[in-house]
Fold this sequence. Notes:
It is found in: Cell envelope. The chain has 329 residues and is an alpha/beta fold. The protein has helices spanning 2-17, 42-57, 75-84, 116-123, 126-139, 178-186, 199-204, 215-220, 246-251, 254-288, 299-316, 318-325; strands at 29-34, 62-67, 89-91, 141-145, 148-156, 171-174, 190-193, 210-213, 229-239, 242-245, 292-294.
Amino acid sequence: MFLSRFLSTSALTVLALGTSVHALAAPERVIDVSLPLGPESQQGIGVLRFGEELERLSDGRLAIEPHYDNALGAEREVVEGMGFGIIDAGITSTGPMGGFVDQFMLFDLPYIFENHAHAYAFLDSEYGEQLAELAEQQMNVKILAWMENGFRHETNSVRVINTPDDLQGINHRTQESRVQVDTWEALGANATPMAWTEVYTALQQGVMDSQENPLATIYDVNFYEVQDYLNLTGHVYSPAPLMMGLDLFESFSEEDQAIILEAAALALPVQRDASQELEQRYLTQLEEKGMTVTHPDLAPFKEAVQPVIEQWGPTVGEDLVEAAINFEH
């Protein structure tokens, strides 16, 4: 009864305003979108803006349904699910994607990008387009926008990290990436790959001492509850591409494909700005939560991981690695 009263009141209001009742209609298609984090995270802000623009540009025909905190599965399962057509869309880190496409391991290599402007310029260039084409060809996934997680930093529950020597003996969780394992072993840690959904519990129980993530992620999942030290190592820039299963994308009309891409393009700068703003805000808040924050000299870290870049360069593509490092920005 309440619903019928609400609808009739709304309908009268719309008619009184002389506007279309089409706005009240349910969308023709709701796209499920997987996110590893919550709605207030840098990922959530970008995906929700994408949804707003999608509804606006399609006059309400297209909408999204966000699924937060890995509700549809861990990142690797989500990437695979999009390729198989089981999951509509998602935003994930690039960590698991290197297991499908060697070139995506570029984003696992340490100290490739100097700052945000460097990373954005590279991703928004023909190199970002080439990587997106590889995702289509080898993963059956359409990259809609190169959103970001941000620069990653190390946290642990053992001690302050000022030099690579301080990582000796620390049990460190990496993403499921061979490059990341090699990186942290080069820095002196005992590196173990582990699915994201298991990390908090492993840190809480002392199975793992250490992890690394962007500041907004560290705050969003309450790592300050189980980690005492935040060390601003900035060792990796981590994109968070917003993606859709290629088969699903191609099932839309050309008009709707253009709307989907435009919505993603409009959401992209909003998401990137939010990511940087959250990064600064959460640095302060993590200190207030009791974490000890250090700003180590990065030169010894960069030197220690050079063999990793040399080792993996041929696999990732030496031209691609060199282009990323030296990209004009």
